[in-house]
Amino acid sequence: MSLKKHINVTVLSQIVVVSFTFLTSVLLSRILGADVRGDYALFTSSVALVVVWLGFSFPASIIYFVSSNKLKPNSIFYTLLLFSGITAIFLFFFVSGLGFFEKQTLIFPKEHYSLTWKISFAIAFLITAMNNIVIAFLNTQKKFYHLSVLQIIFSIITFSIYLFVFISKTRVGSAFFSWAVIITYGVVVLQFLVNLFYYFKYVPHAGHLEWLPRKAFVALFKFSTIAWLCNAFQFLSYKIDFWIISAYHGNADLGIYSVGVSLVQMLWLLPNAVTTVLYTYMSGYNEKKSEELTVMISGVIFWIALLGGILFAALLYFLIPIIYGVEFKNAVWVVFLTMPGVILMAYPIILSTFFASKGKIIYNLYSTLICFIVIILFDFILIPTYSMYGAAIASAFAYASYIITHTFLFLKKFDKEQRYSFLSFFKIDIKKLIHEFNISK
Q: Over the stretch 387-424, which tens digit does the pLDDT of each residue have?
């Protein structure tokens, strides 16, 4: 398949996945209610946090080193499998130690801090981290079609399970919290097993046990460390407000806020889908070709995000109270306050892909750190007084800082005329873009 076909397949699959994710979110919110939805958001966000912090962004490094033929995939796989297993054991002892300091509620609802839940948390981390690693290897083999089909299948499975529960009993609240977590990570386990099957089928020498040499591991870890810092601070920028809202205003507000944020951030699924494919291709392109592709696609993504964001926000104004229920009606204002920043953040996602594919991931770190500092500052100023609305405003300011920094870092390498061309988003050369897609293999 060409680059164009791979992007088309990935984008179309994301539209389907987003649709089912949205419907699943509605059902889950109806089943759990605002308060327990907050508990669920806190637990799953904590798992996602440790995947980012302890996963060391190895997937990004895998794509970079394997796509550019710098390291063997099988040696990376077995080394990271061992590393992730050891990390999961460390995580179990870490969460066990939270009880000594009475900080377990940072992750677990009060009645769910047992040995079983601590083990479950560590397993959820391990399976999620390894699934991300296997997906990265499949991306290096350009198996975007297989991954897209699997995403659709598992999103339908998840939706079907919650639909059955919803039809059986409209709302079961805290009694269903455990089952919601089991369903979420049970589906991840199934995804991992199927992806692992494809890994052994398509990745060269996958069954040959081999370890990374020390020098190669250091190179991988060095790249991963910068990517890890980027993802870790980016994740905190997106999620730190969850814990602050929970601390100041409780999990009911958090449940409403999490719904609004999860809906508005669906707008990023399109650029994220595009970058999933672009990163693999750009890692094998020369810098000039990657620059041209980045400039062209950034303009297209900007306009799609702008028009799509306005229409989506208008639609959610009417749909949120109807679909989620009256107790979630204030999520509408979270959407409105956050949407401008989310729209503008769409095209810097493409710029981040360019920097990472050229080994200039340090630029992504600069922008992410500035964004993190801004959101921490405004979160603690606004959330204590304005709760979820303050968090939404803080996010918009933080996204603006990221956009400005990232655009500056990308444009500084061009002359004045080229900078004007990039910033003139309405001058999109569609014919050239389609030609580039068609010839890219």
A: 999 999 999 899 899 989 988 888 876 655 555 555 55
Residue 30 neighbours by CB distance under 10 Å: 18
Across the chain, how many H-helices and E-strands are there? 15, 0
CA distances from 47 to 41, 108, 297, 408 (A): 10, 11, 33, 34
pLDDT reported for residue 66: 85
- Eight-state DSSP code of residue 168: H
Pairwise CA distance, residues 374 & 235, whole Å: 14
Given this model, what pLDDT does residue 380 score?
94
Alpha helices in 324-426 (DSSP H): 331-344, 346-357, 361-411, 416-423
Residue 205 falls in which region: left (phi positive, over 0), alpha (psi -120 to 50) or beta: left
* Structure tokens, 309: 């964001």
Contact 440, 282 (CB under 8 A): no
Mean pLDDT, residues 60-71? 82
In angstroms, how far apart are the furthest CA atoms of the chain?
63
Distances (CA, A) of 168 to 27, 37, 59, 161: 12, 19, 39, 11
What's phi and psi for 17, nearest 5 deg? -65, -45
Distance in angstroms (rounded) separating the CA atoms of residues 400 and 377: 14
Question: Measured between alpha carbons, how far is 338 from 336 in angstroms, rounded to an integer?
Answer: 6
The tokens describing 175, both together, are 């009694």
- The radius of gyration of the chain from alpha carbons, rounded to an integer in Å, stands at 21
Please count the other Cβ atoms lying within 10 Å of the Cβ belonging to residue 10.
Answer: 22
- Cβ–Cβ < 8 Å for 241, 51: no
Distance CA 315, CA 430 (A): 29
